[in-house]
Amino acid sequence: MVGAAGMLGRAVVAEFEAEHEVMTATRKGDEVAYGIDLTDARSVRGVVLRAAPELIVNCAAYTAVDACETDLESAFAVNAIGPKNLALAAAAIDATLFHVSTDYVFDGTKVGAYIEYDRPNPTSIYGQSKFAGEEEVRRHAGRYYIGRVQWLYGPGGRNFADTILRLADEKPSLRVVDDQFGCPTSTLDAARQIRLLVEEGDPGLYHMSARGRTSWHGFARALLDAAGRSDYRIEPCATVEFPRPAPRPANSELRNLNLELTIGDSMPPWEDALVPYLERRNA
Ligand SMILES: NC(=O)c1ccc[n+]([C@@H]2O[C@H](COP(=O)([O-])OP(=O)(O)OC[C@H]3O[C@@H](n4cnc5c(N)ncnc54)[C@H](OP(=O)(O)O)[C@@H]3O)[C@@H](O)[C@H]2O)c1
């Protein structure tokens, strides 16, 4: 498990630990985790050869979307060369690679949900580097899965849900964009879907989004309602009011077509994940 200290990585480790032997790799490394630098082919190959796993799940990435715009080298080093290094190392020992990707590979202009067979057209450096990572995995891995997720939130990570809950404690009201659409996806659900895919599904490209669609404003409203804060004021606003370095796709909705057509789509409606998230966060 590479990127085991990240938000999704932690959930994946917990999900697999119940039934599988899990070895972890983090950038820093410690007594229990291998130290790995994805950008360094020798580091990656060394760890993979020593650990000799059957399956490598890659949740590591350079995820600071805005920072990628001014740090193109790091973005492509981690998000494109990193997966290439992992794919080559995995192929050398006949291990399966599960690589996590993103809705940012799309430009967000489609009317309706994106399926796996829609043509990517990333508009940000982050999206371009993640799409390049997918291509490297396709080119160099033997047996691989690519799982695209979106709007991730979960316990133990910096994410939109956590930010909204914190800001609602600090400010009298909030303004949240209401013209970007997608589907909030819990890391707990994404991690379960990764396990089900490698246990039951054939290799390939999969969208792994929770079901449904909302805006960031809709997500924030539902989250605060679920947290018992229905009286808290959140005003809708437009993306242009919060200019950011990296363009955001206006429509990020992903349809899990390949899951539907194969092992079945067991991702829940996004609203169902709010209370379990709040319970874990408050525990
Ligand atoms: N968060 C979202 O909303 C979202 C949406 C769509 C797709 N995704 C994708 O989902 C995956 C997981 O995202 P996340 O939100 O869980 O990310 P995260 O919390 O930012 O974790 C990423 C991890 O990658 C590690 N990392 C960065 N550079 C590395 C390197 N050179 N070598 C080894 N490890 C390195 C980081 O280590 P340090 O802590 O040491 O920096 C961090 O632990 C990523 O592929 C991301 O692109 C995320």
What does this protein structure show overall?
It is a single chain. With 283 residues, the chain is of the alpha/beta class. It has a single domain (7-282), classed as NAD(P)-binding Rossmann-like Domain (Rossmann fold), CATH 3.40.50.720. It is built from ten helices and twelve strands. The protein has helices at residues 7-17, 41-51, 65-70, 72-92, 125-140, 160-170, 187-200, 216-226, 257-261, 274-282; strands spanning 24-26, 33-35, 55-58, 96-102, 143-149, 152-153, 173-177, 181-182, 185-186, 204-207, 214-215, 233-237. β4, α5 and β5 (143-149) form a beta-alpha-beta unit. α1 (7-17) crosses α7 and α4 runs parallel beside α5 (125-140). It is globular. 44% of the residues are buried. Residues 3, 5-9, 27-28, 36-39, 59-63, 78, 82, 100, 102-103, 130, 149-152, 157 line the site of NADP nicotinamide-adenine-dinucleotide phosphate (NAP).
SSE topology:
Blueprint: H1 7-17, E1 24-26, E2 33-35, H2 41-51, E3 55-58, H3 65-70, H4 72-92, E4 96-102, H5 125-140, E5 143-149, E6 152-153, H6 160-170, E7 173-177, E8 181-182, E9 185-186, H7 187-200, E10 204-207, E11 214-215, H8 216-226, E12 233-237, H9 257-261, H10 274-282
Parallel strand pairs: 1-2, 3-4, 4-5, 5-10, 6-9, 7-12
Antiparallel strand pairs: 8-11
NADP nicotinamide-adenine-dinucleotide phosphate binds near residues 60, 62 and 151.
